[in-house]
Amino acid sequence: MSDRPIALDEYPIHQAPLSMRHVATGDRNAYDRCIFHVMDHSGRALLIAGLGVYPNTGVIDAYATLRLGDRLHAVRASDALTDDRMALTVGPLGITVEEPLERLRLTCAADPDDPDGLAYDLTWTAAFPATWEPHHTQYRGDRLMLEGRRFVQAGTCAGTIRVGGQEIAVTTGEWTGTRDRSWGVRPIPGEDGGRAAEELRPEGFHWVWCPVRFDDRFLMVIVQEDADGHRTLNEATSVRAGALDTQLGWPHTDITYRPGTRHPERAVIHLTDRDRKPLALTAEILTSSPLAVGAGYLPADDWQHGTWRGRDWTDRRVYDLSDPAAHPLAAYGVTDHAARFTLDGRTGYGIFEHGSFGRHDPSGFTGYDSVAPEAAPAAPRPAGQEEAGR
């Protein structure tokens, strides 16, 4: 490949004395990517789509998953990265920035060989300004493994999703869209982790990421904790159009898990307003999509982001999520839960993204095999007493 200037070099956007062809780090794990969530307020459907660029490995890839009932329809594509960094298209998947920070178009072309496969054409429109998430870093021993800068935003979606012979209308009043953009350094599979990977395995990891859209505001909550509950990432922000962002204190979460699992069924996030008034953000899980199934996030065992699959690679498949035992690795990755939220009598919609694996003392989890306790059996009724309502 020649080292001539590329089109982006015409613009005064450089952050280092390099062509925009290059990133300022030689780390193989450099990345630049996005994720979108499009959810039906009834919990019927959850579409997740993303695209990533990995400049130091020369890869661009994208994915889309649609949870509909117990079926997860997935499309993944990967190709060689080109000099046209504004072409956000990989195989059948594409993102068009129609108006930066305001309106984007998400597309997945139909498969001519499978007319029942997943396809969509959606317009994502911002409802609130984008806001920064906190600077995110993670170390393994002395090595910086992750350093990311992110912004997050909530909006609405309109368009059409086609799958399985049916057409689903996506409307602004009945669907919510959130998105996240991040770039920096993040592990790409295929690197030998050496002694650090073998001897410095984290004892535990606990993560909550919640972008929530209400009619009058957008809330962003982030919590990351180590095994002992030490907080390494923390954010709770309220965003309103035309107003300064408002910090909502130090969030604390009470999560109710499905017995015998770490699958959340509902949660309360305790916040505080500027006047120190307690606020309770409640989440009711509507439907769930594990990112390790179909979407390429760790510890997926069939495809992961940034891995080279050759030119023009596309993969389509359908997963059955009715049996958790069929996807055992999903429990050790992050899951995105579409949720209905309430706050001060208002109802909103968004994502309760959660991952908890290994030890987490505040939750009572003692190790990687630890789960929420089974529900206690009901006390026996006295002889002759009839069950209420019968």
Descriptive keywords:
390 residues, mainly beta, AttH-like fold, 14-stranded antiparallel β-sheet, nine-stranded antiparallel β-sheet, 1 helix, 2% helix, 50% strand, disordered C terminus
Distance between the termini: 77 Å
Task: Give the low-pLDDT segments.
Answer: 381-390
Secondary-structure element string: EEEEEEEEEEEEEHEEEEEEEEEE
CATH class: Mainly Beta
Structure description:
The protein has 390 residues and is an all-beta fold. It has a single domain (29-187, 202-363), classed as AttH-like fold (Beta Barrel), CATH 2.40.370.10. 2% of the residues lie in helices and 50% in strands. The longest helix is centred in the middle third of the chain and has 6 residues, at 194-199. Mean pLDDT is 93; it is low at 381-390.
Helix and strand arrangement:
Elements: E1 30-40, E2 45-54, E3 59-68, E4 71-80, E5 89-90, E6 93-99, E7 103-108, E8 119-126, E9 131-132, E10 136-140, E11 143-163, E12 166-170, E13 175-185, H1 194-199, E14 204-213, E15 218-226, E16 231-239, E17 246-247, E18 252-257, E19 264-272, E20 278-290, E21 313-320, E22 335-343, E23 346-358
Antiparallel strand pairs: 1-2, 1-13, 2-3, 3-4, 4-21, 5-6, 6-7, 7-8, 8-11, 9-11, 10-11, 11-12, 11-13, 14-15, 14-23, 15-16, 16-17, 18-19, 19-20, 20-22, 22-23
